[in-house]
Amino acid sequence: MDTTLQDLNAPHSMGTTIIGVTYNGGVILGADSRTSTGMYVANRASDKITQLTDNVYVCRSGSAADSQIVSDYVRYFLHQHTIQLGQPSTVKVAANLVRLLSYGNKNMLQTGIIVGGWDKYEGGKIYGVPLGGTLVEAPFAIGGSGSSYLYGFFDQVWKEGMTKEEAEQLVVKAVSLAIARDGASGGVVRTVVINSDGVTRNFYPGDTLPLWHEELEPHNSLLDILNAQGQSPEPMNI
Amino acid sequence: MSSAGSIDDLSVRIFPPDGYVFQIEYDAEALQNNGSVVGIKCKDGIVMGVEKLKASKMMLSDSVHRRTVMAVAGLGADGARIFARAKSEAAKYENMFSEPIPVKELVERVASYVHLYTLHWLCRPFGCGVILGGYYGDEPELYMIEPSGISYRYYGAAIGKGKQAAKTHIEKLKLSDMTCREGVLEVAKIIYKVHDEAKDKGFELELSWVCNESERIYQKIPDELLEEAKSAARLPSRKTLITKRPVELPFY
């Protein structure tokens, strides 16, 4: 049909939910894992949290290509900067570089980025660089199509100085709420914790996430059911 | 073997057989004809003093960036060019990285700019030496850039007419224990000591610092401290009182 053909040729966009929160000691970045081309899910397990340096990561949303290119350029500049400085770059420098590229090419790019990391001068910091190329430093930031459903949620639930566990639970809960309501977000939840001790990646499979109003329970696939019963289905002999 | 005055010293692009690029050596002579500049690194900041000879080609000690202090000694016009370049480098860096340019970074860029002019036959090298200091990060930093483009980090540095004598005096100081307030008095004394009263009638002393007291921002030192420094500097030697300015009574 016409619509499916259009979908296959549509640009890869990350209708997305991305979140960055600061906590007492660092930051936590979280994201879903759906990359869609129109109605087709091109990648159901993508990694939208990308590393720039040892201590700075970004969450990417919007056009997959645009956000990848921006991340690549900023990673390159930061690498040079680290060599010149002789020590790790600060999060602020990384965020500024992202902003300069986003704003300077605003006519051509369509990407919203959340920059998060930890440095020894400022501690954990989150910067949002949304579509137009503004730079906003905030205790937490949300982005992507799924974030529309989270503004009220964060208004109520957000508090300063959470512990690492509280903050991570908050991020996972928020992403799963957005996945429930936003068709362009889905898959698994990935989080990255950045603090003075280093970086930790966590992975929450889709079927372990809490269910919300009217969501159906996950079922095992027929393959899993048959395997559990001891009958492994044989491929057809043609 | 080549020697000064032979054909080998005519241009920077000529490399004499014994490897001694004379043009760069002669360049350093330009500094000897101008007033002295002294810079020291104290435990809480940088102090810089300039001997501004009356009607001389000495450059002001000025701020390139609010967190650094830079003094250029030598030909004034060349110095202005170096200043402009340093300011431009500092501004571009801050625009891109949204943080003040680290002193080491600025020094590397200014030094490579100065060095560039020793490589091309079209241009003559800068007739200037630069002392650059700043307190950005963990420790105060002081660097000196020679006309050849080489730069090193120093505890104390001096260029210009009285640099040999100044260096001897600086070496006697215990800089690691000195605060900038004390450093100001010491720098003033050194400049007064190396000032050659016979050859240059009268001069103006300019002092500035980047230290904890000035909140790590470039500042011409406050007037009362300047007066205190001048008085303390004039105390020991009666010779320096023979100037065209009104004589001030020693301060006890």
TrEMBL record, chain A:
Q: What chemistry does it catalyse, as a reaction equation?
A: Cleavage of peptide bonds with very broad specificity
Against SUPFAM superfamilies, the record matches this protein to:
N-terminal nucleophile aminohydrolases (Ntn hydrolases)
| GO cellular component annotations of the record | cytoplasm; nucleus; proteasome core complex, beta-subunit complex
Can you tell me which residues form the catalytic site?
16
Task: State the Gene3D superfamilies in the record.
Answer: Glutamine Phosphoribosylpyrophosphate, subunit 1, domain 1
The protein in question is named Proteasome subunit beta
State the UniProt keywords alphabetically: Cytoplasm, Hydrolase, Nucleus, Protease, Proteasome, Threonine protease, Zymogen
Q: Does the keyword NADP apply?
A: no
Q: Which GO terms describe its molecular function?
A: threonine-type endopeptidase activity
* Family recorded in the similarity comment: Belongs to the peptidase T1B family.
The record ties this protein, via Pfam families, to: Proteasome (PF00227)
Q: Which CDD domains is this protein grouped with?
A: proteasome_beta_type_6
- Subcellular location field: Cytoplasm; Nucleus
Q: How does it assemble?
A: Component of the proteasome complex.
**What is one process in the GO biological process aspect for this record?**
proteolysis involved in protein catabolic process
From TrEMBL, chain B:
> Biological process (GO) annotations?
proteolysis involved in protein catabolic process
Q: What does the entry list under GO cellular component?
A: cytoplasm; nucleus; proteasome core complex, alpha-subunit complex
The uppermost taxa in this organism's lineage are: Eukaryota, Viridiplantae, Streptophyta, Embryophyta, Tracheophyta
Check the UniProt entry and state the signal peptide residues, or none.
Answer: none
Task: Please give the PANTHER family that the UniProt record associates with this protein.
Answer: PROTEASOME SUBUNIT ALPHA/BETA
Give the source species. Answer: Linum tenue
Protein location: Cytoplasm; Nucleus
Query: Does the keyword Iron-sulfur feature in the UniProt annotation?
Result: no
Physiological role: The proteasome is a multicatalytic proteinase complex which is characterized by its ability to cleave peptides with Arg, Phe, Tyr, Leu, and Glu adjacent to the leaving group at neutral or slightly basic pH. The proteasome has an ATP-dependent proteolytic activity.
Q: Does the keyword Cytoplasm apply?
A: yes
Q: Which family does it belong to?
A: Belongs to the peptidase T1A family.
Q: What is this protein called?
A: Proteasome subunit alpha type-3
Q: Which InterPro entries match?
A: Ntn_hydrolases_N, Proteasome_alpha, Proteasome_alpha-type, Proteasome_sua/b
Task: Provide this UniProt record's keywords sorted from A to Z.
Answer: Cytoplasm, Nucleus, Proteasome
